[in-house]
Predict the 3D structure of the following.
Amino acid sequence: MLYIILVVEIRCGDIMVNRIIKEVQLALDNECYVVALMGALTLPDICGKSAYPNLGVGERYRNWCDTYVYPKIQHSDEEGKILDCGITALSGKIIYSLRCCLLHQGSADIEGEKCEVEDFELLIQPKNEFDIYVDNFGVIWPNDDFEHRERHMCLHIRNICRDLCNAAKSYYQSHKDTFGFIKYKIALIEPNAEHPWDYSKEVPNEWYSD
């Protein structure tokens, strides 16, 4: 059996960002939920590098999520001064904690990870007719102690993946010129086939396009 191996050096954000988004969706369609979530959690790393190249990994990851994925709701007072009410269920701090625990430890236990969540749970559900899934959030004050709160979160993996993928896709479309740092090589192996393109030609669209 003859195998043709082509190695192509890639310098294109389209392939990496769009390919990850596409494969996250494929993983969800095949109910590979943990793999899908792991893929989606890498997107803020890539986009954060684009948006904040001079910041450290954690800071740029959290900043990008807070700005482009889970921005806080703001209100103005009578004088027009912006009041940051902090009305948001999710934050860059929580998503970054999940990213670190899941990718580095294979764990989704972010309780005690300095993100103010005492009870955290991921939810898995097959795709439904409307593709709508309800997350659960709650805050309680035990023992009538209003100085100490406990925050509870139950998040659907499908929702997290959707939020991160949609934000990354939108961000990339508006900031393509800042993804020049992406560079890698791909080896394509095809048995018993004469591939219609060579090193001098572009990478096939089916590698990364919808």
